[in-house]
Amino acid sequence: MLNKLRIGPKLLLAPALVLLLLIATAGCAWLGMVHQNASMENLVQVRATRLQAAADAMGEARHAHASIYQLLAWINGSFAQQRLDELSRQIHARHAALEGQLGELAQVSSPDEARIVAACAQALAAYRKGVQETMELAQMDQSIATNAMAKAEHQFSLLNEDLAQLAALERQLSEQAYAAARAEYRRLGAAMGGLVALSVLLSLLVSMRVRSLLLREIQAIGNAVRSLADGDLRRGPASEGRDEIAETGRVLDHSVARLNHTLRLIQGAVQSIDTASHEIASGNQDLSARTEMQASSLQQTASAMACLTGAVRQNAEHAQQASALAASASSLASDGGAAMAQAVAAMESIRGSSRKIVEIIGVIDGISFQTNILALNAAVEAARAGEQGRGFAVVAAEVRTLAQRSANAAREIKTLIAESVATIDRGNACVGRAGGSMDAIVGSVREVNEIIARISTASSEQAQGISEVNQAVGQMDDVTQQNAALVEEAAAAAESLQQQAVSLSEAVAVFELGQAAPAAVGDAAADSAAAAWRGRKAADGTAAAWAGTAAAARKPAAPVADEEEYAMPERRSTASRMRAPRPRAPSGSGAGEGLAQKARAGQPEAPGQVHRFGNADARADGDAHPAAARQQFKR
């Protein structure tokens, strides 16, 4: 259990247990004080008060009973009626006070107390009744009052017995409460003593156990460090705990195992570096040829993009002209629509005037008909007049003829006007349809104008985008030219790589690693190194400290001992790595972009920087030796 705790919780475990037990002891003490306080309050405020109330009730009852005998004596002695009445009032007041005390005792009481208090109340009521009868009879006859007093005396005896039982019960309950308080005190003392003893015992046990664990882990780490100082890389400290010391031991164990395995891998990596340098030289030649081809292709692409940029720009200008023409056509169509609307309004006005003319012709036709009727009546009257009315008859005939001609003309005009109104209605309908068609034409022209405007905007954006693409192609051309310069630097890096292989060989020759040959390091060694790598990643700042110690131990061995970090990805065979094509990084991203920017700025890459770029490429390709597991070192 303690092995799973860290150093801080281990050191705080014993004080924390003592503190918890002290808190528990304080809690028990406080709880005991609360119980003792409750017991004292029960004894003082409840039990003592009720015991005193029971004693007072007995005293009141006896005093009131003695006052009754005094009243009988005063009545027999013929005392003044005023003094007798005063004594009677005192007796009644004492009885009322006794009844009130019994009522207070009955409010908060146990079942036994309630039963005795109820019996006392019943006895008091019977006693008061007997006393009242005795006092009333004493005013009339002393002998009868004496006999009645005997009955009251019996009731008083019963009341006195009940009050005595009540007092005894209250005394018993007080003694029980006192005994319970004493028992609670003894239990509290025993519990506090047990908690104190338990806290001392647990503190000693936990302290000794923590001391033993810490000393054992520290001694194991000391032995491992002494073995490491003696050059023994076969084992590290065996740690099973989870605290900082155990983690330090595990990190030291991982460091020793990783150091042993890394030195074995370095022996195989020397041969891999030699093979890699030859492959880098071959790859540089291929890269140079591909770079020249890419530069030629980019020049052709730049020329084609320039032509495409001019064509798209011309299309954008034509689209702008078409947009202007469409806007003009839209304006003309709008004017035509307005003129058509005015024509429709004029046709409506003509149609209304024609209808009014038809109505007027109808009135004229009616007048002609009435005139014809009047002329007919005048002719009839002229015929009746005979010779005297002949001239009037001629005039009436002419008037009738004119009326008939007017009626015929009115009918013809009405017919013509009706045909004209029908023609106007048809023309109005045609004008309405023409107006709708004109509105549709105006809408279509507006849509065409909007479409051409969008086409013009898109053409402008395309022209801008192609211009940017043209600029990017030019930048790619520059980067390609710079890549050609980097190929030469890569050749220098290959030569530097061979020199570093010689330095690594000299550095590894210093260590005694046993009889295992570098080329015989198999999958088991790679798996153990991978496990050590995962352990290093899982460790905290202590692991970093031990890694720094291991690096410091490697410094005096050889000039290449300044390596700060290394990676160990999964292994791959030399044949598969040589068959696999080399990945090409994009010119605008990663390390290639940084090199291109430096080349454009006129800052050539240092050989060490080119070497790191070559190491990154080597990490992507894999190591040449199966036992090396592609260990890479950054300078």
Topology:
Blueprint (H helix, E strand, L loop, with lengths): L6 H70 L4 H27 L3 H28 L3 H88 L14 H142 L4 H119 L14 H16 L2 H14 L11 E2 L6 H6 L10 H11 L6 H15 L10 E2 L2
Antiparallel strand pairs: 1-2
Helix pairs in contact: 1-2, 1-4, 2-3, 3-4, 4-5, 5-6, 5-7, 5-8, 6-10, 6-11
Task: Please supply descriptive tags for the structure shown above.
635 residues; mainly alpha; de novo design (two linked rop proteins); Helix Hairpins; two-stranded antiparallel ribbon; 11 helices; 2 strands; flat; disordered C terminus
Molecular structure report:
The protein is an all-alpha fold and 635 residues long. It has helices at residues 7-76, 81-107, 111-138, 142-229, 244-385, 390-508, 523-538, 541-554, 574-579, 590-600, 607-621; strands at 566-567, 632-633. The chain has a two-stranded antiparallel sheet. α1 (7-76) runs antiparallel to α4 (142-229), α2 runs antiparallel to α3 (111-138) and α5 crosses α7 (523-538). The longest helix has 142 residues, at 244-385. The radius of gyration is 65 Å and the shape is flat.
